[in-house]
Specification:
Elements: H1 19-25, E1 36-38, H2 47-58, E2 65-68, H3 75-81, E3 89-93, H4 102-115, H5 122-142, H6 150-158, E4 163-165, E5 168-170, E6 183-189, E7 192-199
Parallel strand pairs: 1-2, 2-3
Antiparallel strand pairs: 3-6, 4-5, 6-7
Protein backbone atom coordinates (compact mmCIF):
# COMPACT_ATOMS: atom_id res chain seq x y z
CA UNK A 1 0.00 0.00 0.00
CA UNK A 2 1.28 3.46 -0.84
CA UNK A 3 3.72 2.16 -3.46
CA UNK A 4 3.41 3.04 -7.12
CA UNK A 5 5.03 0.50 -9.40
CA UNK A 6 6.52 2.43 -12.31
CA UNK A 7 7.65 -0.54 -14.35
CA UNK A 8 8.63 -4.17 -14.42
CA UNK A 9 11.44 -5.47 -16.59
CA UNK A 10 13.56 -8.58 -17.05
CA UNK A 11 17.33 -8.61 -17.34
CA UNK A 12 19.80 -11.04 -18.89
CA UNK A 13 21.90 -12.56 -16.09
CA UNK A 14 24.93 -13.07 -18.36
CA UNK A 15 25.04 -9.57 -19.84
CA UNK A 16 28.30 -7.63 -19.60
CA UNK A 17 26.49 -4.50 -18.41
CA UNK A 18 23.05 -3.08 -17.63
CA UNK A 19 23.61 0.56 -18.55
CA UNK A 20 20.79 0.62 -21.13
CA UNK A 21 18.35 -0.86 -18.60
CA UNK A 22 19.37 1.74 -16.03
CA UNK A 23 19.01 4.54 -18.60
CA UNK A 24 15.46 3.32 -19.24
CA UNK A 25 14.75 3.27 -15.49
CA UNK A 26 16.24 6.77 -15.09
CA UNK A 27 13.21 8.33 -16.79
CA UNK A 28 10.54 5.97 -15.48
CA UNK A 29 9.11 8.37 -12.90
CA UNK A 30 7.33 10.84 -15.19
CA UNK A 31 10.62 11.58 -16.92
CA UNK A 32 12.67 11.45 -13.72
CA UNK A 33 14.31 8.88 -11.51
CA UNK A 34 12.33 6.49 -9.26
CA UNK A 35 12.62 6.41 -5.48
CA UNK A 36 13.76 2.79 -5.45
CA UNK A 37 14.57 -0.27 -7.54
CA UNK A 38 13.65 -3.77 -6.40
CA UNK A 39 15.69 -6.60 -7.88
CA UNK A 40 14.01 -10.00 -7.75
CA UNK A 41 17.24 -11.87 -8.35
CA UNK A 42 20.22 -13.63 -6.85
CA UNK A 43 23.89 -12.81 -6.60
CA UNK A 44 24.77 -15.63 -9.03
CA UNK A 45 22.73 -13.89 -11.73
CA UNK A 46 25.05 -10.89 -11.95
CA UNK A 47 23.36 -8.79 -9.26
CA UNK A 48 26.70 -7.16 -8.44
CA UNK A 49 27.17 -5.81 -11.98
CA UNK A 50 23.56 -4.67 -12.12
CA UNK A 51 24.05 -2.73 -8.89
CA UNK A 52 27.29 -1.16 -10.15
CA UNK A 53 25.53 0.04 -13.30
CA UNK A 54 22.57 1.29 -11.26
CA UNK A 55 24.93 3.48 -9.21
CA UNK A 56 26.73 4.68 -12.36
CA UNK A 57 23.50 5.85 -14.00
CA UNK A 58 21.13 6.63 -11.11
CA UNK A 59 23.44 7.54 -8.26
CA UNK A 60 24.17 5.95 -4.92
CA UNK A 61 21.72 3.92 -2.85
CA UNK A 62 20.67 6.92 -0.80
CA UNK A 63 19.51 8.78 -3.90
CA UNK A 64 17.69 5.78 -5.44
CA UNK A 65 17.27 2.95 -2.98
CA UNK A 66 18.24 -0.55 -4.08
CA UNK A 67 16.31 -3.41 -2.50
CA UNK A 68 16.50 -7.14 -3.08
CA UNK A 69 15.54 -10.49 -1.54
CA UNK A 70 17.57 -13.06 0.37
CA UNK A 71 19.34 -14.02 -2.86
CA UNK A 72 21.47 -10.88 -2.55
CA UNK A 73 21.71 -10.86 1.28
CA UNK A 74 25.22 -12.20 1.11
CA UNK A 75 28.77 -10.95 1.28
CA UNK A 76 28.97 -11.93 -2.40
CA UNK A 77 26.99 -8.78 -3.27
CA UNK A 78 29.61 -6.63 -1.57
CA UNK A 79 32.47 -8.59 -3.15
CA UNK A 80 31.07 -8.20 -6.67
CA UNK A 81 29.55 -4.72 -6.46
CA UNK A 82 32.28 -3.14 -4.34
CA UNK A 83 31.52 0.39 -3.16
CA UNK A 84 28.30 0.40 -5.22
CA UNK A 85 26.78 -1.94 -2.62
CA UNK A 86 26.96 0.70 0.11
CA UNK A 87 23.45 1.49 1.36
CA UNK A 88 21.72 -1.38 -0.48
CA UNK A 89 18.93 -3.22 1.34
CA UNK A 90 18.09 -6.92 1.32
CA UNK A 91 15.34 -8.90 3.01
CA UNK A 92 14.88 -12.49 4.15
CA UNK A 93 12.54 -14.50 6.36
CA UNK A 94 13.45 -14.56 10.02
CA UNK A 95 14.38 -12.32 12.88
CA UNK A 96 17.09 -9.77 13.54
CA UNK A 97 19.67 -10.86 16.10
CA UNK A 98 18.32 -8.38 18.66
CA UNK A 99 14.85 -9.94 18.35
CA UNK A 100 15.97 -13.55 18.82
CA UNK A 101 15.30 -15.32 22.09
CA UNK A 102 17.78 -17.12 24.32
CA UNK A 103 18.20 -20.11 21.97
CA UNK A 104 18.93 -17.87 19.00
CA UNK A 105 21.37 -15.74 20.95
CA UNK A 106 23.14 -18.93 22.10
CA UNK A 107 23.38 -20.17 18.50
CA UNK A 108 25.16 -16.98 17.40
CA UNK A 109 27.44 -16.99 20.45
CA UNK A 110 28.40 -20.62 19.79
CA UNK A 111 28.81 -20.00 16.06
CA UNK A 112 31.05 -16.98 16.65
CA UNK A 113 33.16 -18.91 19.14
CA UNK A 114 33.73 -21.76 16.70
CA UNK A 115 33.78 -20.11 13.26
CA UNK A 116 34.05 -16.35 13.84
CA UNK A 117 31.50 -13.59 13.38
CA UNK A 118 29.05 -13.91 10.51
CA UNK A 119 26.70 -11.49 8.78
CA UNK A 120 25.17 -14.28 6.69
CA UNK A 121 21.53 -14.53 7.85
CA UNK A 122 21.09 -18.07 6.54
CA UNK A 123 23.53 -19.43 9.14
CA UNK A 124 20.75 -19.68 11.72
CA UNK A 125 18.23 -20.84 9.10
CA UNK A 126 20.52 -23.71 8.08
CA UNK A 127 20.98 -24.66 11.71
CA UNK A 128 17.23 -24.55 12.29
CA UNK A 129 16.54 -26.64 9.17
CA UNK A 130 18.98 -29.30 10.35
CA UNK A 131 17.42 -29.41 13.80
CA UNK A 132 13.90 -29.73 12.36
CA UNK A 133 15.01 -32.62 10.17
CA UNK A 134 16.67 -34.38 13.12
CA UNK A 135 13.59 -33.79 15.27
CA UNK A 136 11.37 -35.34 12.58
CA UNK A 137 13.70 -38.34 12.26
CA UNK A 138 13.62 -38.84 16.03
CA UNK A 139 9.81 -38.70 16.00
CA UNK A 140 9.61 -41.23 13.17
CA UNK A 141 12.00 -43.58 14.98
CA UNK A 142 10.05 -43.24 18.25
CA UNK A 143 6.88 -44.24 16.35
CA UNK A 144 8.73 -47.30 14.92
CA UNK A 145 8.61 -45.78 11.42
CA UNK A 146 11.22 -45.99 8.67
CA UNK A 147 13.70 -43.10 9.02
CA UNK A 148 15.14 -43.88 5.58
CA UNK A 149 11.83 -43.26 3.79
CA UNK A 150 11.93 -39.79 2.25
CA UNK A 151 8.13 -39.25 2.18
CA UNK A 152 7.78 -40.36 5.80
CA UNK A 153 10.40 -37.85 6.94
CA UNK A 154 8.97 -35.07 4.76
CA UNK A 155 5.49 -35.65 6.16
CA UNK A 156 6.87 -35.74 9.71
CA UNK A 157 8.66 -32.42 9.15
CA UNK A 158 5.57 -30.70 7.72
CA UNK A 159 3.32 -32.03 10.49
CA UNK A 160 5.33 -30.33 13.25
CA UNK A 161 2.91 -28.15 15.22
CA UNK A 162 5.20 -26.62 17.83
CA UNK A 163 8.94 -26.60 17.30
CA UNK A 164 11.12 -24.99 19.96
CA UNK A 165 14.15 -23.87 18.00
CA UNK A 166 16.74 -21.17 17.56
CA UNK A 167 14.16 -18.89 15.91
CA UNK A 168 11.68 -19.37 18.76
CA UNK A 169 8.53 -21.47 18.88
CA UNK A 170 7.02 -22.09 15.45
CA UNK A 171 5.40 -24.60 13.09
CA UNK A 172 4.87 -25.07 9.36
CA UNK A 173 1.68 -23.68 7.87
CA UNK A 174 -0.36 -25.42 5.15
CA UNK A 175 1.90 -23.91 2.47
CA UNK A 176 5.07 -25.21 4.11
CA UNK A 177 6.10 -21.76 5.35
CA UNK A 178 7.12 -21.16 8.94
CA UNK A 179 4.58 -19.46 11.20
CA UNK A 180 6.94 -16.72 12.35
CA UNK A 181 5.39 -13.77 10.48
CA UNK A 182 8.51 -11.64 10.31
CA UNK A 183 11.24 -10.75 7.90
CA UNK A 184 14.67 -9.34 8.48
CA UNK A 185 15.98 -6.31 6.61
CA UNK A 186 19.71 -5.81 6.26
CA UNK A 187 21.63 -2.87 4.85
CA UNK A 188 25.20 -2.58 3.62
CA UNK A 189 27.07 -0.15 5.86
CA UNK A 190 30.81 0.42 5.76
CA UNK A 191 31.33 -2.56 3.51
CA UNK A 192 29.27 -5.17 5.36
CA UNK A 193 25.65 -6.13 5.87
CA UNK A 194 24.20 -4.98 9.17
CA UNK A 195 20.79 -5.94 10.45
CA UNK A 196 18.50 -2.97 9.91
CA UNK A 197 15.59 -4.56 11.79
CA UNK A 198 12.72 -7.05 11.91
CA UNK A 199 9.40 -6.23 10.26
CA UNK A 200 5.96 -7.83 10.11
CA UNK A 201 4.48 -8.02 6.60
Amino acid sequence: EGITILGNDAYAPKATDYLALMQKISTSNNGGIPDAIFLGGIIENNAGQLLKDKVTVLGDNQKVKFIGPDGIYTDGLIETAGKAAEGAFATMPGLALTDLGEAGQKFYADYTKRFGKTNEPYAIMGYEAMNVALYAIENVCAAKGDPTDRKTIRDAVLSIKEFHGALGVWAFDRNGDITIPYFLVGQVKNGEFVQFGTYTP
